[in-house]
């Protein structure tokens, strides 16, 4: 099954499980989650498991966001992926060829003419059956040969998300439904309007739209582009603010061909690279079934994408994918043994705009690490380096240790019943380039959903949820909040994965 058929499959599956609500004049729930990507699914699942009545709204025809429709089917190595991400991994393990652990393969930067026939056009990851999930839970301090991540099938991920949500018995999922407006008063979201014509009324809301649509409608302060060094005192920020943002990717998939050949270019697509001096390098990842996931780094500069807008940017990236694939086949005989199988229906967006929260995570947090941070409300850990995929970030380097994300980064300034759990959370541009990975977004969502459940239980507003109660609840859900990984948590991961292999 390929991703374009997911809407039909998931719609039927969710209806069978009693998890889809048709449009009505007014819908009521305790928690409304807008956006069904990693952060939104994490929030909905965590809250629903604690008995909260949840409505999850997603504009696309399936769940998963970037990790499904965007083709970003790779979880890069990162500290902190032990909560919901690990559960999803275990569900994927139950499906044939749905998930695997990768090891770094060839790379243009480590080309060895004594062992390789040619310099690889980027980086490669290969499935490594000897590796386990624990091997994927660290990035910093590791040489490239010891870096491991997770590759998964997008349709399998969408099924796992839908099934887990349905199993709670407390979540209604509205697919093909977009947020259009919000009704607010005195720092509270009262209700939101949906593209179906329905009004959704809730006690609490989570904005997981990716670029803070609900927060913007609620009047929250937004950030976009690079902040000036003076704003957050970040050593590697530019002297003056700029409009530049992280690049976007349009990922495509190739599959072994019956007969090696160079596929023809569509009419109107040049064979040369018209948007740069040469075609960009690519990260090429092996799927468990032998297909390859190809990610140009990037397909389009972030600033150009912001100028063009989504529809025009997607159309232009589709042309670039065709040209890039033709170039790979033309220059490298290895790729003539594949054919183009699928182009992701959505762009993989790393950054757009961000919301100013009660605390803004900055480069200083990344440099201090969890041992140097003085935050009592850390709700997840990460250790990915700052990385813009656009050549406009100074000081890119591996971190010396993981850092923590405070709960206050999820609380938009001045809001009482609204959290944000997606790439638009309260991060500086530099911090966002590190904190954007899918597993980290899942953990932000898990924290947001858990906080909403505690707020309901304690009858308080979201900013008043006691940090110690939230952190205790997350630990009970196997979320890593300390580094190194506690031995008890390590043993839990080992036992759970070993049990799935029996």
Proportion of residues in helical segments:
25-40%
Radius of gyration over all CA atoms, rounded: 22 Å
What's the story with the biggest beta sheet?
8 strands, mixed
Q: How much of the sequence is in beta strands?
A: 15-25%
Uncertain ranges? 1-23
Any overview of this molecule?
The chain is of the alpha+beta class. The chain has a domain at 248-349. The protein has helices spanning 6-16, 38-49, 84-93, 154-168, 213-217, 229-232, 302-308, 310-331, 363-372, 429-435, 438-458, 467-476, 487-501, and strands spanning 26-34, 54-57, 74-75, 99-107, 122-127, 148-152, 171-174, 179-185, 188-194, 199-207, 222-224, 248-249, 252-256, 282-286, 292-296, 338-343, 348-349, 353-355, 378-382, 403-406, 418-420. It has an eight-stranded mixed β-sheet. Strands 1, 2, 7, 8, 9, 10 and 21 form a seven-stranded mixed β-sheet that branches. Strands 11-18 form a two-stranded antiparallel sheet. A hairpin with a 4-residue loop joins strand 9 (188-194) and strand 10. The protein is globular, with a radius of gyration of 22 Å. It starts with 5 loop residues before the first helix and ends with a helix.
